[in-house]
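Standup notes
- DV: blocked on the single-chain target, sequence here:
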Amino acid sequence: MHYRRIACFLLGLWLGGGLLMAWVAARNLGSVDRLLSQPNPFIAVQIKTLGPEGTRLLLRYQAGEQNRWYLESWEVAQIVWGAGLLLYLLFGSTEGKVSLLLVLLMVVLAVLQRLLVTPEMASLGRVADFIPPGVPSTERTGLAILANAYTSMELLKWALGLALAGQLIWRRHGRSGDSRQEFDVVDKANHRHVDW
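- DV (later): unblocked, structure below
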């Protein structure tokens, strides 16, 4: 069915966007060390003014702020994208309840991330960014716990997305398809026996 290709394409964009965001966040934090290991002459002067550790803290804070903004923006995009996919499957397809439930669960996870996990991660991250490495802190511990929760939610969204892809690819009939077949079976000539 044609709508399944469109739904798989939309789902693929959603899952691909998640991979892209994970890659961007990792590269963004790694850029601090790359910049400090080979600074251009102008930056080298600024590093001498702030000192290497002060510069590292400031750059890590800036990279962290970028990542926080990327995550918040991506979560809003996921909610909108997921709601659109859910509405498309609900009104533009014959998909059954399982497919709709899988998309709904993915959207709910994105909403939970946006409303509960990310704001708390951002708050703790802004404090933890300025704590020197190796110094134990409750903010870093809390941030690590929230980061693990966030990653677990992302992996769960991926599992649900792959299950949805399986439903879209291998499921034979949806809501309307099954009811149509049942109607046709009743109308067959060999089913017309009435005992008088």
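- Follow-up: Residues 99 and 164 are 6 Å apart (CA to CA).
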